[in-house]
Amino acid sequence: MTYRSALSIALTSICVLLLFLQESSSSTNSYLHIYKTGTRFSLTVRWWGLSATGTMEVLENTKSSGKDAILVRSHVTKLGGFLGFIVKFLRMYKKSNTFDSYIDPETFMAMRYEVYQLNDDGSVELTEHIYFDRELNKVVSLVDNETIISDTSSDIQDAFSVFLNLLCRVNTEELSVGKEFELNLYAYRKAFKVEIDVTRLLLTGSRTIYTLEIEELPAMFKYPASLSFEVTDVEGLKLPIAGKCIIHVPVLPDITIDGEFTEIKCAS
Question: Rounded to two decimals, what is the model's pTM?
Answer without folding.
Answer: 0.78
